[in-house]
Write a structure and sequence with these properties.
By secondary structure, the protein is of the alpha+beta class. The chain has 13 helices and nine strands. The strands form three sheets. Strands 4-5-3-8-9 form a five-stranded mixed β-sheet, sandwiched between helices. It has a two-stranded antiparallel sheet with strand order 1-2. The chain has a two-stranded antiparallel sheet with strand order 6-7. A hairpin with a 4-residue loop joins strand 1 and strand 2. Helix 1 packs parallel to helix 7, helix 3 packs antiparallel against helix 6 and helix 6 packs antiparallel against helix 7. 28% of the residues are buried. About 3% of the residues have low confidence.
Length: 419
Amino acid sequence: MDRHTEMYMDLISTELISFVIVLSILLDRYYLKRIRVVVPDSTYVLMIYSYLAYLVLDLFAHRFIAGSSLFSGGPDRLIMLLHLLSFPAIIMHWTLVIDTNLMTQRLFRITLFTKLMLMGVLTLLILIDTFSVRVFVGEDSTFCATGVGIYLITFVGCLFAFSTLMTFLFSRHAQRVHRSLLSGLIPLFMGISLILYAIMSRHELFTVGSAFMLLLSHLLIQHRRFEFDSLTGLPNQNGFMSFVDQSFHRDQLITLILVDIENFRNLKEQYGIESSNEVLRQFAGFLGLIEGSLSVFRIGGNRFAVSFPDRSHNEIVRLIGIIQHRLESGWSVFSEKISFHLNIGCIQIPRHVRTKEEMHDAIDFLFSEIKIRRRQSVMIYNQQLMRRRQRQLDVISALRSALASPERVKVYYQGIFSA
């Protein structure tokens, strides 16, 4: 086996291993959906499909152009140049998928236009160079493309990768940022591996490393599925507290509308489990359609939370009115009309609460107050309620301190006499 053939075998083996990894990810996603497990993030599936296209082009190119004259012009050379073009192309697609979560819509449109223009210029240059043989040069004996073209591809690919990396690093205070370690790790890895390819003329690291990046994304996302409710597909209590914690760290102003279906146990006994579950699904879908809502969470069996950007008192009243108006028409479930009553509360971050613990206590206190008052099914957390809650916490703290020191407790007997 000569050196040329040995190099081809190494490349094809790497691509086949990568293909098996990606196929395993897709099969696992198919199995999870078949057993109705919530898969929280599907954006990386677009990255998987583009990577499969890259692998198919790689395998085809390495198989087709073996033993051909690649640096003298013609169709064989075009295939080789398209193979080289696939490196910045897949980096562009992957970084654009990440950019959608890191940027505002306006900034993303500018970035999209810029990257497409650069990619279009590079593609046009490659098509022209298919016959001119000036930008990409090399020797058939070594199968190494050199010249200005390789550095140009490396520059464009690295520009795509490191621009996304910079966005990731400096978007800490953006309102729409969904930060994840992989959002920075993927462009960093792809940029470095492309530089190594330009230096070493071997792209095994880029190919198999990208497959492992997808595998790592899949595993991390599967870990996140424990933050989602399997019935409604909404983030659960764990996902809600993660959202609250992130809001505190970003100093975001968030308005939370909390809804609790009253006497849901009676609803379940009257209509059955299947119908009550369908009610929860339909109600969750309605909450997600409310104008301006950021996220919807199922934070308990019959309790939901809807997050909005900071809202004024009048806007909060309007949103609550929308929910109450929808309740009047009821819910059609399996040819039955089902109606129920809601307890509704509102809490604003960080105006009313500043920690996860305070959030948990405030929610419990808010709904306990609603149940105590009975006739008041809507309550907005305010300064008066905050003082009352603080008073209760002070009393509880004093009682705990007293119980810790029994000698400080004085017990009095008060007799009760019948008249």
